[in-house]
């Protein structure tokens, strides 16, 4: 994995989470612009998956390779699920659901980084 | 009766879906590759994944009875496994999602079933959610 890309994605997803939770606090559902930002974040995660896949194919050994690949795949599923749930709930609770999905992204990335560099448990 | 996946229930569905994914991916890999190393822990992880999946589906489709059963088992599981893992760490050489009351997952596994049960109770009392 590439450190700066992972760091950027973590920062962006945290910004997104705060944005959506502030939206929820103001009692508003998510709009197109929020979905668009989630799509941009998802594109970034896709790039990360491709980079990691290339490095793995090139011989990098992550700790618990299978678990790592599971997280890698999981990192692409979280935001679409959050967006889907948020779109179906046109209230502040949909915004909270989207915020929760965004908050999950940094957690997944941090776990992947641990496994990638072998410093994890 | 209000739908269980509306209002605050939508957030619960999101968290349950995420935990289904986390527990499922982890246990699937563990069961497939290293089952012999810690069968009890891995089977518990798989059980947790199934419970989370059941709770997600039941909340989504508003099946109150199944939701109550799944979330009840979940609460019993996290309390039982949590207590057991604290008292006798040797019994769980490999962590499960419920070990140490879900400390490895920010204690969300402990809080989630409580919120789930509160939501089941509240949504049955208030046919129309005031938040909508």
From TrEMBL, chain A:
Residue spans crossing the bilayer: 34-56, 68-87, 93-110
Protein keywords: Membrane, Transmembrane, Transmembrane helix
Name of protein: Integral membrane protein
Taxonomic placement: Bacteria, Bacillati, Actinomycetota, Actinomycetes, Streptosporangiales
From TrEMBL, chain B:
Record key words, sorted: Membrane, Transmembrane, Transmembrane helix
Residues passing through the membrane, by range: 40-60, 67-87, 102-120
Top-level taxon of origin: Bacteria
Keyword Transmembrane helix: yes
The keyword Transmembrane appears for this protein: yes
Organism: Actinocorallia aurantiaca
The protein's name: Membrane protein
